[in-house]
From TrEMBL, chain A:
SMART domains: TBC. Pfam families: RabGAP-TBC. This is Rab-GAP TBC domain-containing protein. Keywords: GTPase activation. PROSITE patterns: TBC_RABGAP. Residues 42-252 form the Rab-GAP TBC domain.
Automatic annotation (TrEMBL), chain B:
Keywords: Cell membrane, GTP-binding, Lipoprotein, Membrane, Nucleotide-binding, Prenylation, Protein transport, Transport. PANTHER family: RAS-RELATED PROTEIN RAB. This is Ras-related protein RABC2a-like. GO terms for biological process: protein transport. It is a lipid-anchor. GO terms for molecular function: GTP binding; GTPase activity. Belongs to the small GTPase superfamily. Rab family. Its main location: membrane. Intracellular vesicle trafficking and protein transport. It comes from the Eukaryota. It is found in: Cell membrane. GO terms for cellular component: plasma membrane.
Amino acid sequence: MTLVWGKPRQPPLGSEEWATFLDSEGRVMDAKAFKTRIFYGGVEHTIRREVWPFLLGYHAYDSTYAEREYLKSTKKSAYETVRQQWQSISTEQAKRFTKFRERKSLIDKDVVRTDRALPFYDGDDNPNVNILRDILLTYSFYNFDLGYCQGMSDLLSPILFVMEDESESFWCFVALMERLGPNFNRDQNGMHSQLFALSKLVELLDSPLHNYFKQNDCLNYFFCFRWVLIQFKREFEYKKTMRLWEVLWTHYLSEHLHLYVCVAILKRYRNKIIGEHMDFDTLLKFTNELSGHIDLDAILRDAEALCICAGENGAARIPPGTPPSLPIESENAFLYAQDDEVL
Amino acid sequence: MGSSSGQSSGSYDLSFKILLIGDSGVGKSSLLVSFISSSVEDLAPTIGVDFKIKQLTVGGKRLKLTIWDTAGQERFRTLTSSYYRNAQGIILVYDVTRRETFTNLSDVWTKEVDLYSTNQDCVKMLVGNKVDKDSERDVTREEGMALAEEHGWTFLECSAKTRENVVQCFEELALKIMKVPSLLEEGSTAVKRNILKQKPEHLPASSGGCCS
């Protein structure tokens, strides 16, 4: 096998360079080049509001300024219609609507403890916290079968922080959940399929580590659960998380780069893991405590190299439909509403 | 200060694994943080599990408690089953101001414990949190006691916010565990195993460390 290194990271895409990707009417002329550019450097915070909707799939690359403006207004009223569905529930009605009350109380509890250290969300009666709540509750009506699950507020928080607009944030979140929704399925199949694919990738890319996990009854990869569920949101500081997300969302090289990021982190600590004979409990604790100590740029370079290295062999080990790939249509219809327990 | 979370070797006699379970938002993480550091802030919802280590002296023994703080939401249950393995103590937490968190103990959590707890002798404790909100109380002290009695659990009411009874929860649980010979045995072998594992490169920052 030849040695492969990830390319050095570039400075983030700024507004002047961003303008060069657009034609006179606002279409992204070369989506592939655009995504490649972001993969290697991310984007400057000031233009995230324009760029993220493309990466998330909310805006089409061939849409014009005018079309996007129009979309914004129609989507705003569409959002308000769904929001109205729960806002119109009276106190009397709520008394006889347990699922609504439970869902609302869970969301109420979670939004006040989501990223409160950030000035954008801190303090009492912060309006942004209320918007966070409204969007999540509206989403739980938009996708009633999936509802609300812990972790969703982590995924929404940076989107609202970037978009600073309730309706636009909602639709960006909807687009993200098209891919990540299965992470929150009641039967956890979305998570299991990703953790299974991860084990296959480790088997391919580091068989001694794979064997170690096998011998120590760690093949469920639950110690990577948080990484995968909320896309490393709790592992990096806020700014780094946003950088990582925009890189992942390009789907350049692979839709499953996040799994290669997991492999890269595990490989970086493999000698420690094996050398200290970590058992399942210790490993779980160890990966949890890596939070805040992972060098993002270095890990992204490693992940890129691993992804190139694995090539088609790697891709072949990830079953079709594994999130964040879009779900395979025929099966998907049954996935959500299979359990009466809706919360 | 007292709550070193490092792996300093040999400074304790027994090591126990404690699991915190209960519905989302009952204050499991707050209870733990209140016990460890005396600060109570709004904590991010737990994803999967968090850990804290606390060393304390109970009944003349120096203990190391590794406390597993689990996610309360039902959807993460397949995951939490793997956390029960080898726990010597389980704390079942409910919120005295939310009745459903109490009823769910019987409906959901006890079944979970029976199913996944590998340790027959594992000590269980029932804890009603948020007694500081007395005006909003929805579950009486007597009800809590009755449920605990029915299952043979220890029972306490506490407030993570005011820290009332918080230390007592963990101390009482530790005392109970130490009274069970099989658990005591597990606790001391865990320490021995850990000492054997110590590597020379694993030097703790021992500035003025010296055994008394």
